């Protein structure tokens, strides 16, 4: 399962939402570009990131690293690597920063304007049943991360 959208309800806390989806509070804040938890309001939609341990490993940035070099080392397109980590390809990455590295047994795709389920299935060279099983929530809004098990 990839990212979900969750509407904040009365009584919700960041901790209860994170526990419910088995993700870290920091990951919820990061993917939603929220600096202060006080910004959260009842009725607000939150993107809930996937449990990253299932689909990603992590890499700790070392002095002199660039997204291009890390992508080359892991055989990952630097644009995809940047997008998976909420960065632009030109963004500065700093030592000790932790970034997500896609695991090898999955293919990843970030949706674009005009994508359809059928067009994404063709990218993955998959079947509709397999695709829908691996991506329970599909919005096809630009920037949604979809996966395909190889």
List keywords for this structure.
about 150 residues, two-stranded antiparallel ribbon, alpha+beta, about 20% strand, 3 domains, Membrane-bound Lytic Murein Transglycosylase D, Chain A, 7 helices
- Give the count of structural domains: 3
Helix content: 25-40%
Radius of gyration: 16 Å
Beta content comes to: 15-25%
CATH superfamily of the largest domain: LysM domain
Strand order of the largest sheet: 1-2
What do these coordinates show?
The chain has 150 residues and is of the alpha+beta class. It folds into three domains: 4-48, Membrane-bound Lytic Murein Transglycosylase D, Chain A (Roll), CATH 3.10.350.10; 52-102, LysM domain (Membrane-bound Lytic Murein Transglycosylase D, Chain A, Roll), CATH 3.10.350; 106-149, Roll (Membrane-bound Lytic Murein Transglycosylase D, Chain A), CATH 3.10.350. 33% of the residues lie in helices and 19% in strands. The chain has seven helices and six strands, in the order βααβαβααββααβ. The chain has helices at residues 14-21, 25-31, 52-55, 67-74, 78-84, 117-124, 128-134, and strands spanning 4-7, 45-48, 56-60, 98-102, 106-110, 145-149. The strands form three sheets. It has a two-stranded antiparallel ribbon with strand order 1-2. A two-stranded antiparallel ribbon has the order 3-4. The protein is globular.
Write the layout of secondary structure elements.
Blueprint: E1 4-7, H1 14-21, H2 25-31, E2 45-48, H3 52-55, E3 56-60, H4 67-74, H5 78-84, E4 98-102, E5 106-110, H6 117-124, H7 128-134, E6 145-149
Antiparallel strand pairs: 1-2, 3-4, 5-6
Helix pairs in contact: 4-5
